[in-house]
């Protein structure tokens, strides 16, 4: 007897040992969280994340082993923004100095520095300890600044620095994500309630997805000690984990419910779901994982971190679907369909074919060429703005001005430009050349003091390492990080520094800083992007050829995914490079897209789109294998998969769209970009472009192979009848049945209990019906005498008509 697939064996064990499987999963999730919390996060350092010249500058500075101190700046201005009263300003500054010196967290307090415009005083404060946890120790300083403002009427006292800025931003982000969770969870539950019509069935995917996110965050923390982690990883894990975790559970639950409705026992239904939908989950998860692995080819620490987090959460979601989900379903039994929501329950259990999907598909099936031209033209029109895409790294000018610390930063840089955008010059040379290096840098600073591209409110100071081999100096510019002025000052400085160091033998110099990092990162991505895109496209092609044995299907998958990605990029550019949507999404447009987003979005989109593409095209191929003409096969495949695909897409769009409400512009762009991509893919691509293309191609869909099914010429539309009076979808050669009773009842034959043998002889089955149903899969193709065995032709080892499986085209569908 043939050995069952691994997905079935695992599911059967979980279903027959539910408490053991559930207990092991709880232990696994708890262990991941505990071990991850104990190990702590190894974050990416500046020298690890840098590329090109700014990366070299970071490495030079790091080699100097400079002591890192958390710096705070207390800014005193008039409350009305006008001229500062000198006496009141000095009194407030003296109060600040006195209060700060009394704090244990403070190491030193500098003398007040007047602003060149006479409208502000700045008191520099140096905190004790390192910069890593300054945000946890800065609260006493913030309280002292607030007390000074309370005691000095008419003045505004702001505090901006290493710890205060990090604390203000992290608190805002924390509130954002709490709000996102409060919205996303009820929204996801509501969508699943509509899908299942029962509260427990709707809750299982959400609970399972949350457990996957928790386990993945713990595992990614452990992985950060091998590949350092960026701060955005936990957010990406939440986004990806909720999307794929809910989707995989949705596929599994829908199939298990269908099998129970067909008369199978609970364990047998779980086994069939594992062999069909479980296999779909494995194929989909593997595709997403390998696609995300393409980000490693970017050869950059941030992308490697994002790839690692995404791969971990997808792998955990696949594991949960194959192990603990069958156990939960077995333990819940028929309670999974309770408590029923009356109207929604009747809606989900409604029998008969939907009228909506055939109506939507009518243009693609009746006029495929016109539909193809119109739908592709619409997507290309949406993609046009992407031709003007500009890439830049996010900076302080991208932050929401609703955040108090951001407004304080603006006031600080208005009065003291050198505290805002800063270029860092780094030089490494032998210790005996230290005097020459310092002299050259002073000459460089003399040139910057005469140029309006650089800030002149303070004199830059050259820092020297203890071993006198490394020199650094910060040169400010009065322009915002993403402005043309900031870029021009960087280009000029990078031209001047080599000239200044030309007379210093063995000197290694570089210019870094936030502006330089953004410019270099964008250039690096433009250089590496062809490698990543090529890898993903090749993976998609190979995967589709392996699944469908068709080069035509593989090429069409690539073209459709490229079309969907281009359209979503166009939406992204139209929204975020312009100002019309600022009020709607609450952001300040910088005229650019975050530089890391397009590549990450492209990889994620291709991975997730493969999920839908495999599911839909496999249904179409199965109908064609059964003998249906191309148009009928396309109609049947899409209508039978539309419910699951639409439900999964709505869940993903809902989860992704929540990220568009966050304060950080990179998360807004990520959420809007992914939501737009999935929506376009599920609606325009799957309803219009794909069916129109496959209908137009006809028998060439399966090139270079061919199917042994019926003719590829025009087939009757849903409202037209075949000879004999029945619509095409009701003809016996195209029908799908889950049980003997349905076969007899449909065509007026005796019931299965009365004359099963007669029914199967009439239907062309060569094997005893009882044996077939016990095995759970038919061992001979439907109407074997009419055509060649499609399983031998398609390369599938296990035939299985009547299995509702998205990833194995050899299965006949119910």
From TrEMBL:
Residue ranges constituting the Membrane transport protein MMPL domain according to the UniProt record: 65-351, 401-704
Keywords: Cell membrane, Membrane, Transmembrane, Transmembrane helix
Origin: domain of life: Bacteria
Main location group: membrane
PANTHER family per the UniProt record, alphabetical: MEMBRANE PROTEIN MJ1562-RELATED, MEMBRANE PROTEIN YDFJ
Membrane topology: Multi-pass membrane protein
Transmembrane residue ranges: 20-39, 187-220, 232-251, 272-297, 303-330, 369-387, 529-548, 555-576, 596-617, 638-664, 670-689
Name listed for the protein in its UniProt record: MMPL family transporter
Pfam families per record: MMPL
Biased composition range(s): Low complexity: 741-783, 790-801
Signal peptide boundaries: none
Stretch list, region Disordered: 710-814
Localization in the cell: Cell membrane
InterPro entries according to UniProt: MMPL_dom, Mycobact_MmpL
């Amino acid at each position: 007897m043939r050995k069952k697939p691994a997905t079935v064996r695992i599911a059967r064990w979980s279903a027959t040992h539910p408490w053991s499987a559930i207990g092991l999963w709880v232990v696994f999730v708890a262990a991941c969280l505990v071990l991850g919390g104990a190990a702590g996060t190894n974050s990416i350092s500046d020298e690890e994340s840098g590329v090109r010249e700014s990366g070299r500058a970071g490495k030079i500075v790091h080699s100097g082993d400079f002591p890192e101190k958390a710096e705070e700046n207390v800014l005193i201005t008039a409350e009305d923004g006008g001229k500062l009263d000198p006496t009141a300003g000095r009194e407030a500054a003296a109060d600040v100095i006195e209060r700060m010196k009394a704090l244990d967290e403070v190491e030193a307090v500098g003398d007040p520095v007047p602003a060149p415009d006479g409208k502000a005083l700045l008191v520099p404060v140096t905190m004790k300890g390192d910069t890593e946890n300054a945000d946890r120790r800065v609260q006493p300083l913030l309280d002292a600044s607030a007390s000074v403002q309370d005691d000095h009427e008419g003045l505004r006292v702001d505090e901006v620095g290493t710890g205060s800025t990090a604390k203000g931003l992290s608190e805002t982000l924390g509130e954002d994500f709490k709000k996102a969770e409060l919205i996303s969870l009820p929204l996801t539950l509501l969508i699943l309630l509509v899908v299942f019509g029962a509260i427990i069935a709707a809750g299982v995917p959400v609970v399972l997805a949350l457990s996957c996110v928790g386990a993945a965050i713990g595992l990614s923390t452990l992985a950060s000690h091998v590949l350092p982690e960026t701060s955005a990883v936990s957010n990406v894990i939440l986004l990806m984990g909720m999307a794929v975790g809910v989707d995989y559970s949705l596929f599994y639950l829908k199939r298990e419910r269908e099998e129970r409705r067909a008369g199978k026992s609970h364990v047998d239904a779980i086994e069939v779901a594992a062999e069909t939908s479980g296999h779909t989950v494995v194929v989909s998860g593997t595709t997403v994982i390998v696609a995300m692995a393409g980000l490693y080819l970017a050869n950059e620490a941030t992308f490697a971190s994002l790839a690692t987090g995404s791969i971990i959460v997808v792998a955990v979601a696949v594991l949960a679907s194959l192990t603990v989900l069958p156990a939960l379903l077995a333990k819940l039994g028929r309670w999974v369909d309770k408590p029923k929501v009356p109207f929604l329950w009747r809606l989900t259990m409604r029998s008969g074919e939907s009228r909506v999907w055939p109506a939507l598909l009518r243009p693609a099936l009746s006029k495929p060429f016109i539909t193809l031209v119109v739908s592709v033209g619409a997507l290309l029109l949406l993609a046009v703005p992407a031709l003007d895409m500009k890439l830049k790294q996010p900076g302080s000018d991208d932050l929401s001005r609703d955040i108090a610390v951001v407004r304080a930063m603006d006031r600080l840089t208005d009065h003291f430009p050198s505290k805002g955008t800063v270029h860092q010059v780094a030089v490494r040379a032998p210790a005996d050349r230290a005097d020459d290096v310092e002299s050259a840098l002073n000459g460089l600073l003399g040139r910057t003091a005469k140029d309006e591209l650089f800030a002149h409110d303070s004199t830059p100071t050259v820092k020297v390492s203890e071993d006198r081999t490394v020199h650094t100096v910060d040169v400010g510019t009065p322009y915002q990080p993403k402005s043309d002025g900031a870029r021009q000052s960087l280009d000029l400085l990078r031209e001047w520094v080599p000239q200044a160091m030309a007379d210093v033998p063995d000197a290694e110099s570089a210019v870094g800083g936030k502006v330089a990092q953004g410019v270099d990162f964008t250039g690096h991505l433009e250089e590496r992007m062809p490698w990543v895109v090529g890898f993903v496209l090749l993976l998609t092609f190979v995967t589709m050829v392996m699944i469908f044995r068709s080069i035509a299907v593989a090429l069409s998958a690539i073209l459709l995914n490229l079309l969907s990605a281009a359209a979503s990029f166009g939406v992204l550019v139209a929204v975020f490079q312009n100002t019309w949507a600022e009020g709607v999404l609450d952001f300040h447009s910088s005229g650019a897209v975050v530089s890391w987003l397009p590549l990450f979005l492209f990889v994620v989109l291709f991975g997730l789109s493969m999920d839908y593409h495999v599911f839909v095209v496999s249904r179409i191929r199965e109908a064609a294998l059964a003998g249906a003409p191309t148009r009928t096969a396309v109609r049947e495949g899409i209508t039978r998969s539309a419910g699951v695909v639409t439900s999964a897409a709505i869940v993903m769009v809902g989860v992704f769209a929540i990220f568009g409400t966050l304060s950080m512009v990179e998360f807004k762009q990520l959420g809007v970009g992914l939501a737009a991509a999935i929506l376009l893919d599920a609606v325009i691509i799957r309803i219009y472009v794909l069916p129109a293309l496959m209908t137009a191609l006809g028998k060439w869909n399966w090139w270079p192979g061919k199917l042994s099914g019926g003719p590829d010429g025009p087939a009757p539309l849903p409202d037209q009848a075949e000879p004999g009076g029945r619509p095409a979808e009701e003809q016996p050669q195209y029908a799908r049945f889950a049980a003997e009773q349905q076969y007899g009842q449909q065509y007026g034959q005796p019931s299965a209990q009365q004359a099963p043998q007669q029914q199967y002889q009439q239907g062309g089955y060569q094997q005893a019906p009882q044996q077939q149903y016990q095995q759970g899969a038919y061992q001979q193709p439907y109407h074997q005498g009419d055509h060649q065995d499609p399983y031998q032709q398609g390369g599938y080892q296990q035939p299985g008509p009547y299995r509702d499986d998205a990833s194995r085209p050899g299965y006949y569908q119910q």
